[in-house]
Amino acid sequence: MSIRDDAFAGRPITVPIIDAHTHLLGYYLNGWYTAFQETATVITLMDHLGIDAIVTAPHTLVSGDAEATNEATIAAAAEYPGRIYGYIFVYPHDDLAIVRKIIARYAAHPSFVGFKLLPGYHGSLLAPAYAYALDFAAEHGCPVLTHLWGSSPGAAEVEAIVQTRPALKLLAAHQGGGSADCTDALVAVMREHPHVTMELCGSLYNHYALENLVEMVGDERIVYGSDLINLDPRYDFGQVVFSTLPDESKSKILAGNFLRLLEGSALGSIAIHGT
After folding, report:
1. d(CA 244, CA 246)
2. Residue 259 neighbours by CB under 8 Å, 6+ apart
3. Which of 73, 127, 233, 248 could, after both became Cys, cross-link 92 (CB 3.0–4.6 A)?
């Protein structure tokens, strides 16, 4: 049976799946409503869809509380080992000495596989604290997922951080910012910088289908993410599993490409049976 056949039949997808962009804990600021507030409910939904693991940065990141965010990740990963992993969150307005301590503390914990940055909400992607985190990630070989939405920040800031860090594994969220224009701008950067990868979540807002994105950047430079629990993960999940792409391409997008980003990393790893 193909991935598409399993999806149409309502069966959990049997190829490895990693949701590379998620959040946990309720969040009510700025009009957001989160439908899956209990982590146990998230796990049940993962089982229903066939998602093996998620990588998360809990919603306390919005308020800038790095310690609370990273500790919440550790707690969730301990409660559901092998199903929940985390991104180290750093807040760019903390003193740089605090940022260094946060990174040193949590980079040593096996539940963390990379970094999550929230520019736009927290200002420029070019902030000094982000520069330190990006340099650390490049040196230690782990991926960095950065928020992008509209032009806050935009592709110009992405290009500024990657052009001097050829070893950085940057994962650009929301197809570059949610719209076709933002995707076009990101794709232009990706063509010049092969170490930039596109993450899918929020594709509901984009005019491009997944097949279009693969034509633009290839099936090895796109990673599945959903923005769970901000968004229902079934939308972007459906974009992949119901697409007309061959199963080989779907498998790369659903897990293979993210696992490849973790290769050679000095941080934690994700073990999925059969990979």
Report:
1. 7
2. 16, 18, 270, 272, 275
3. 127
Using alpha carbons only, how large is the chain's radius of gyration in Å?
17
Structural domains of the chain ordered from first start: 3-262 (3.20.20.140)
Residue 8 confidence (pLDDT) above 60: yes
**13 near 241, Cβ under 8 Å?**
yes
User: What's the pLDDT band for 231 if we cut at 50, 70, 90?
Assistant: confident
Helices (H), strands (E): how many in the chain?
11, 8
- What is the CB neighbour count within 10 angstroms for residue 81? 9
| Amino acid letter, 132 | Y
- Checking if the pLDDT of 230 tops 90, the result is no
The pair of structure tokens assigned to 80 is: 């559901």
Asked whether the beta carbons of 81 and 105 are under 8 A apart, the reply is: no
